Amino acid sequence: MSDTTQQLALGGQKIVEDLGVLLTDSEEMLRLAANMPGEGVDALRERLRAHVETLQTALGDAQQNAKHRYRVAAVNAERYVRRNPWRSLGMAAGAGFLLGVITAR
Q: Is residue 42 domain-resident?
């Protein structure tokens, strides 16, 4: 995986985590606003409810997208290994050697 691909994967994971936190906070605000009377609070509750629904949809979409990209990457990796077994073995041995050198220090 290239550095750019790793950065994109980490960025996508961070977005999903941030959406989860935002969703949790919004649900908590909605729960707290449910106990408050008043006309202005009713409007706030409706806006929060719409916001929570939007976040749930966005989080679900982001998770589906991440799953799809993972499956595609796994299929491509398997395809590469099957087409280039010796090269894959050499890369794995090299990575293992470097990891061994790094951990030995």
A: no
